[in-house]
Amino acid sequence: MDATTETFGTVPLAESLACEIRGLDLATSLTGDHVGAIKAALDKYSIVIFRDQRITQQGQVDLAARLGPLRVPPIYKYGVDGMHPSLHLVSNVLHNDQQIGLADAGVFWHSDAAYMPRPVMYTLLYGVEIPHAADGRALGNTRFASMAAAYEALPDEIRTRIQGRRVIQSLRQKYEKKIAAGVLKRGPLTQEQYAKAPDRDQPMVRTHPNTGRKSLYISEGHSAGIVGMPNAEANALLAELCAFSTQSRFVYDHQWRVGDLVVWDNAATVHKATFDYKLPQRRLLHRCTVEGTEPF
User: Fold this and answer.
1) Which long-range contacts does 2-7 make (Cβ < 8 Å, 24+ apart)?
2) CA distance 107 to 120
3) Which of 74, 100, 189, 235 is found 20 to 30 A from 84 (Cα to Cα)?
4) Which CATH number characterizes residue 264's domain?
5) Is residue 296 part of a domain?
6) CB-based contacts of 241, cutoff 8 Å, min separation 6
7) Triad 108, 110, 112: Cα angle to 5°
8) Could you count the other beta carbons within 10 Å of the beta carbon of residue 199?
9) In a domain, 162, yes or no
């Protein structure tokens, strides 16, 4: 079956911070042209939404594999028996009083796995169950900020100040912040797990491997310091940059529907979840990721 309908096309959203691709049924066979169009949309918009999809676990993984090398989470994985090994769950659902998924994923703005040598390039998140308010309004939005647009809007003096600087990206910081805020909903990591993801310095200004566009590569979730800069000065600068880059003018706020597949480019964006729901309101999404290249 052909995956394309007569209405195939790309619709920009939020002043071109994201786009929706319409007329493409991801449950059917995608051609090389379809995959090329998806990659081109990711390069242009960074965030691509497909609505009203009925995609299997294998279908989601197959699409990810056509975008690049699949990445199996090396530190932790959440799911249920029978799940595809390349997927894990983002969910607040309990089974036998235990979390079946990552219930605290996205508390802070972050770019996925920024602390790894080859961070995540693309994340694919599929909406299986979406919570709703009593008035029918969808809850649990995901917010995305364009770090490329934010970098381009920086005052010249700040661009000069951060040029050539390297930021310390830290998994440990993310966990310590969650513990301090009282929002950690999973067990603490072991020293063995931390050893798989030690603190790593990455460029503060990252060049996109496909487009050459520059973006800020910092976040409130992972950025723990700046190489060669005193802690107080570094923390103040990082806080200023995080606040600047997540202004509403740089943000696309995605309101989920069941059947949404959202794909985003972690080399050009940060994201966070909205925690405006609680059980018995259930939220369950399937997540898989594509490995990227070493940031430069």
Assistant:
1) 2/28, 2/29, 3/28, 3/29, 3/30, 3/31, 3/34, 4/34
2) 18
3) 189
4) 3.60.130.10
5) no
6) 158, 162, 216, 218
7) 130
8) 15
9) yes
Name the 3-class secondary structure at 160: helix
Q: Which amino acid does the sequence have at 247?
A: Q
The rounded distance, in Å, linking the Cα atoms of 60 and 282 is: 21
Contacts of 55 (CB under 8 A, 6+ apart): 26, 27, 63, 126, 261
Question: Residue holding tokens 């005052």?
Answer: 155
DSSP 178-228: HHHHT---SPPPPHHHHHTS--EEEESEEEPTTT--EEE---TTTEEEETT
| Residue 276 domain boundaries | 4-291
Q: Is residue 40 part of a domain?
A: yes
Q: Is residue 257 part of a domain?
A: yes
> How many domains is the chain partitioned into structurally?
1
- Measured distance CA(28)–CA(23) in Å, rounded: 12
Q: How far apart are the first and last CA of the chain?
A: 41
Which 3-state string (H, E, C) describes 80-117? Answer: CCCCCCCCEEEECCEECCEECCCCCCCCCCECCCCCCC
| pLDDT tens-digit profile, the chain (296 residues) | 345 544 689 999 998 899 999 999 999 878 999 999 999 999 999 999 999 999 999 999 999 999 999 998 766 667 777 788 899 999 999 988 888 888 888 899 999 999 999 999 999 999 999 999 999 999 999 999 999 999 999 999 999 999 999 999 999 888 888 888 878 877 777 888 888 888 999 999 999 999 999 999 999 999 999 999 999 999 999 999 999 999 999 999 999 999 999 999 999 999 999 999 999 999 999 999 999 999 99
Structure-token pair, residue 279: 């059980």
Structural element, H or E, at residue 232: helix 231-245
